[in-house]
Amino acid sequence: MLTMACVGSTNFLGCLPKDAFAVVSVTPPALQCRTWEAIRAACGRSPDIVAYFDYSAPPPLPGVEHFPCLTVFGCVDSHIHHWYPTYAQAFDLCTVSLRDHLSAFQENLSPDRAIWLPPAAEAVAAESLPREEDKDIDLLFVGKVDADLTPGRAVLLEQLAALFPGLVVTQGNWRKLFPRARLVLNIAEHGDLNFRVFEALSVGSCLLTPEIGHGLTELFTPGEQLFTYPPEDLDSLAALVRELLPDPARRERVARQGLEAMRARHSPAARAERFAGFVTAQPAQALIRQRLEASRELPASLRLLYLHWAEALPGDPRAALYLEAAKGRLPAGSCGL
To answer: Contact 34/336 with Cβ under 8 angstroms?
Structure first.
């Protein structure tokens, strides 16, 4: 059995085969890091694998290129953090949520060491599909709306509200909110294949989502399992809403087929199987030796990344760890043990 120290979380961890992986959470508190000593202490031994599942923070594992075990970066937010491919080269393996960004990671990691691993969600049973008579919202968006941080989303929703008084924009538990809607709207502010796609389909919602790439149409068939519209195209989106609102039979058919696709191919169990197969098929010891040999001369881009964070966090205890990592050393001690 392999001991895997997990930094961060992902919804497929509980589906990993129990006879193959013993998962130990070593996620630090917010705004802190884990060094090798801290991880080893949390596990009670040296783990076989250290996996960082992206939670959109400064590098949580300074000096990871020196860790004496297999290392994995589960990357999600590469649409926000453009330095992720640089950090990924410090690891042995990488999974990338956004398919169209995969090539950037494979520039530093060979194609067999960086793979596409899309999001997932646990699908409800078919008999749990929401009934038409129980839906009390015409069009629903669930998520953060901020004129400064998500200006495109804010403008589009304001324009839609003027056309469709039945539009509801809110935040909260999507598992409870989505089933109330005749149509669930997704807006991908940064052009990412976001979790809202999988969440909406997993509860049997009829989804309208932008045509954003990243493998969306390889995972789902527009018009059969969901509906798509050109990003930020108000006229096309409005026409689609007008077409679908009075057609419950079509909405229900597409929602059911989307739910079936989720259950068959996009469950956490399916992602766990893919992740486990990817990790266990690797020549672990050879990868570790190769990385440790390469880490004797830190790549300039990785050194600059550590130096950036050392400078960006003055007075923060993480800054000293990043500075040590920039010098090519495995930082001693820990921040957040």
So the answer is: yes
If asked whether residues 135 and 196 sit together in one domain, one would say: yes
Task: Tell me the C-alpha to C-alpha distance, in Å, between residue 226 and each of 87, 132, 194, 207.
Answer: 35, 17, 14, 5
How much is the pTM? 0.92
Give Cβ neighbours of residue 225 (< 8 Å, ≥ 6 apart): 201, 254, 257, 258, 261
Two tokens, residue 209: 């989502």
10-44 b/e (C-beta count within 10 Å ≥ 16 → b): bbbbebbeeeebebbebbbeeebbbbbebbbebbe
Instruction: Give the residue carrying structure tokens 């001991």.
Output: 3
Based on C-alpha coordinates, what's the Rg of the chain?
Answer: 22
Lowest-pLDDT choice from 163-167, 226-230, 294-298, 328-332: 328-332
- Per-residue pLDDT reduced to its tens digit, 254-286: 999 999 999 999 999 999 999 999 999 999 999
pLDDT above 90: percentage of residues in the chain: 85
DSSP element (H, E) containing 250: helix 248-265
Q: Range of 63's domain?
A: 2-120+269-326
* 54 and 176 assigned to the same domain: no
Domain count, the chain: 2
> What CATH code is carried by the domain that includes residue 174?
3.40.50.2000
Report the CATH number that the domain containing residue 302 is assigned in CATH: 3.40.50
